[in-house]
Amino acid sequence: MAAESPNEWVRRLSPMEKALLERLASGSTISAAATAEFLSLRTANRRIADLRRRAGVSTTRELVGIYRTHRDR
User: Fold this and answer.
1) What's the domain count of the chain?
2) C-alpha to C-alpha distances, 42 to 16, 34, 45, 49, 66, nearest whole angstrom
3) Which pTM was predicted?
């Protein structure tokens, strides 16, 4: 099975995942993004770790870069 393209991956994000990534892409810290989205820091960190795993990247910076590049496509 072929790997999912970044465009497809971004399109399949849930509204909460998109909201977290949007805040991170705008320069917020994970803590500030969690607070703004009414999540605990632990929950936000878990969701971001899951997103990194699904995207096949090891850092949040890489994750946000993929999101920025493909969010408007």
Assistant:
1) 1
2) 15, 9, 5, 10, 23
3) 0.88
